[in-house]
Amino acid sequence: MTDMNEVWQMMKAYADAYAVPILRDAELPLFRGLIQSARPERVLEIGTAIGYSTLQMASCLDADSQITTIELDPDRVAAARRFIGMTPFRSMIRQLQGDGTALLDTLSGPWDFVFLDGPKGQYSRQLKKLLPQLAPQAVIAADNIRYHDMLYIEGTVPHKHRTAVGRLHEFLTLLGDTRRFDTVFFENGDGMTVSRWKG
Ligand SMILES: C[S@@+](CC[C@H](N)C(=O)[O-])C[C@H]1O[C@@H](n2cnc3c(N)ncnc32)[C@H](O)[C@@H]1O
Are 70 and 94 in contact (CB under 8 A)? Predict the structure, then answer.
């Protein structure tokens, strides 16, 4: 078993070397604080990358909690498996490889905490599929909501990002339905929403 400080350093070095986007240091206090206060037993993550956020969550959870995490890219799945294997948290983590939105059809939950950090244009579809899988009072966190500030541009969003930005607005509209969710939008960094499901 490798010391966790060494694991974090190795993961950051790997992410730098291979340009893998992982949670930034400035986001960690909010992210870890959320997990620590929610104390979820069943966690779903879409967008494992190399397992950095997965391990950040695992290191805040009780040992009998379980995280299911989905990643599309097989090289990243393999890197995550190596890093997770170095830690005492490996038995808490189930890795799935494939498209997060499609794989939701094979899962049933119930999830106490969901971290959406895969393709931003898929958040609204993923949320719709997730509704029947959410435990009462489940927390849903979604990262990169500002989408490099393209969320705020009106009319001049570069063509290749237009669909994703439109879908992010749709996602925010879904989360803004106060009959279903209480939502806070943390706008620092690239923006993260945190919502409590009222179902
Ligand atoms: C921002 S990174 C995730 C970072 C990670 N959560 C962390 O903070 O350590 C987004 C990841 O989503 C993955 N991804 C992209 N499309 C996906 C899809 N359709 N299903 C699952 N994962 C996907 C990318 O390969 C990438 O590794």
Answer: no
pLDDT tens for the chain, 199 residues: list them. Answer: 789 999 999 999 999 999 999 999 989 999 999 999 999 999 999 999 999 999 999 999 999 999 999 999 999 999 999 999 999 999 999 999 999 999 999 999 999 999 999 998 999 999 999 999 999 999 999 998 877 766 666 667 677 777 878 888 899 999 999 999 999 988 877 889 999 999 8
Number of domains in the chain: 1
pTM score of the predicted model: 0.94
Distance 70 CA to ligand 1 centre (A): 8
d(CA 90, CA 81): 9
State the amino acid at position 20 in one-letter form.
V
For residue 52, give the CATH number of its domain.
Answer: 3.40.50.150
Q: What separation in Å is there between the alpha carbon of 62 and the centre of ligand 1? A: 25
119 CB less than 6 Å from ligand 1?
Answer: yes
What region, left, alpha or beta, does residue 69 occupy, with left being phi > 0 and alpha being psi -120 to 50 degrees? beta
Give the residue, by CA position, lying nearest to ligand 1 atom 18.
99
Full residue range of the structural domain in which residue 103 is found: 4-197
Measured in residues, the chain has a length of: 199
Is the distance from the beta carbon of residue 100 to the nearest atom of ligand 1 less than 6 Å? Answer: yes
Ligand 1 neighbour 76 (Cβ under 6 A):
yes
> 52 in ligand 1 pocket by Cβ < 6 Å?
yes
